[in-house]
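Render this sequence as a predicted structure.
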Amino acid sequence: MSQSQRRFSNIIGLDDCPFSQDFRGAVQVVGTVYAGLRLDGLLVGEVEKDGFDAADRLVELVSRSKFAEHVQLIMLQGITLAGFNVVDVFDLHERLDLPVLVVSRREPDLSAIREALLTQVSQGEEKWAVIKRLGSMEPMGAVFIQRVGLNLGEAEETISRFAVHGHIPEPLRTAHLIAGALVDGQSRGRA
């Protein structure tokens, strides 16, 4: 690790709860707060399904929490929550003054996403502009990432250290499990 490379230990991982395709309204978002590999706390908020309020709601959720002064990094499992509620990660980074690391199992099909946004979703052009600004995901081992406010080495070291039980870092894996349990009474799917 180079002298200028930061090592992040206090991380909030955020993921949305599952919902049915015909669901309308607010979808819960779970934040898991980690200090190293220890789960230190939970946050629960909400964003509008297919809305455009994700960055605003996440800024409120993190900044109003008792964990705000210690957080060093925000992790997201993809840049959309609650369907097509696109997280403006540049806005999130700027307003919280925290690096943002986006992790995904698969590289998204940007042409399909663009088509859906421009033909089926409210504010689709603005949402597509946010996705386009962030650019393509970078492959990193068995996952793909996007990052704002941290370099490639910092992202790689963070994922390596926090991906203990598979390829997804623990803050995101745990948020995913809890989000599923909130809706279904038990976790479901791959974490």
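Summary. The two ends are 29 Å apart (CA to CA). Helices lie at 54-63, 89-96, 110-120, 124-134, 152-162, 170-184.
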